[in-house]
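To whoever is on call:

I kicked off a structure prediction for a single chain this morning and the downstream step that reads the tokens threw a length-mismatch warning. I double-checked the sequence; it's 359 residues and nothing unusual in it as far as I can see. Pasting both halves so you can look.
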Amino acid sequence: MAVTLGGKTLSLPILQGGMGIGISLDRLAGAVAAKGGMGTISTAACGFLEPDYRQDHQRANLRALDRQVRRAKELARGAGLVAVNAMVATAQYADSVRTALRAGVDAVVSGAGLPLQLPVIAAQVPDSTAALAPIVSSGRAAALICKAWDKRCARVPDFVVLEGPLAGGHLGFSPEQAQAGRPDVLERLLHEVREALAPFREKYRRDIPVFVAGGVENGGQMARLMKQGAAGAQFATQFIATEECDATQDYKDALIRARCEDAVIVKSPVGMPGRALRSPLVRRVEAGVQPGPEGCIGCLVPCKKLNSPYCISQALIAAWHGDWENGLFFCGANVGQVDAMSTVEKQMDQIIKEWRAAQ
């Protein structure tokens, strides 16, 4: 079932979620796109492995992002689409979007804040035909974004990613909502978001596809949500334990060992709740004994660095290196279902098999 996204065709209704730092870069995104889905590169500190990252992290990030987008497009071999996930909260948000667009990315997916300026930024790269999509967690957010884009740029999103409370990483819910999240919440939110988009679908006389994310366990659930109006689904955590994922093997092994009850809601210096494994770092934060961060490179605009117990960038980079003691290991609520290494091909084939069987 092909889906049209801003004039681009996605042959399979599967998105791979953007995971940072360093979890979804060119290898994973390119592999998912090569199978006909949308692979996504996380722009968050994507140049952390560059030799000059500590001296000039901004230049390193943009250089790496340009290379990663171009490489992922090569790996995709024209089969699927390559996107970037750009967090509004990052200090390099606009620069990252422009860099990805100039490199030829097929779509920009944006969350961790309301991407009200995304179409304005994209217009600064007039040769780009990339699809633009916000990540939302409510109908209210979807309506607010559409109103802003309509008023300022006379356009609406090419598609929307609806992220429910069972997702990994930063969440658009209160800690209590995230902790109590149930799979059926996503169904209610899907109806709410589609209702919010209806006036804009009518005004622009075209569909605004909604992809559901967060807690979608398999192709069968994707099929059920598609019958309720979703265009497809986004998967993330299950792509981590694949050969092609850009995470280190130590990171992958940490997720393979984990049980569902090991995923907890953590307080992020960004000011949003997040879901991660209960590593020693998280336990120290919970106990109030984690020493504060050392140094700051100003990578996140809303970071409460003056009274934060840890630096989230340093913690995510430590996790990439497999540092269980000091790392922050983001994951979805269904992490316990990831119990062995796999490949992108096997994961994609399984999702499609389950989806077709449920139709």
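Update from on-call: the warning came from a stale cache, not from the record. Cleared it. Sanity check on the structure: The chain has a mean pLDDT of 92.
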